[in-house]
Write a structure and sequence with these properties.
With 156 residues, this protein is mostly helical. Helices cover 54% and strands 0% of the residues. The chain contains 3 helices and no strands.
Amino acid sequence: TDEERLDRLEREMEERSAMEELEAKVVDAKQEMAIADALDEIRTRNARNERAAAAGAGAAGEEKEIDPVDEERRRVEREDEERAKRAFQTESGEKVRRIGEEGDGVEEEEGGVEGVGTSDKATMPPPQTVPEFRRVVKKKKDLGKALGIKRKPALV
């Protein structure tokens, strides 16, 4: 009985020390992860500061480096705006008027670009019809059949 008690106490002490060791390892691992995160954050901040300093130095002496994707997007937008302006102007530089602007029912066409401003009804697309939204009742599926459930017929 005394020996059993001593053995039991030794086992409990070993379990406690094992748990304490495990807890210490967990605390150490968390501390190492926090240090690694802080170090990574510092490195990121330093890299960002270096890029900003390089861009600032480059802007002082030279033109800033422009992102080619943004430059391409701006160029395409400018070209589209110019095409739109040209499409709605005649060769003489006058704006093409819409039907009903003057009240005469005829649009002005003095060599407009690609037939813009023609009053020919054949070239105009037909007006679109408004879609109708009606409630459609769908037939319900018998999910019992899909699962293989068989129902017995009613006795009444």
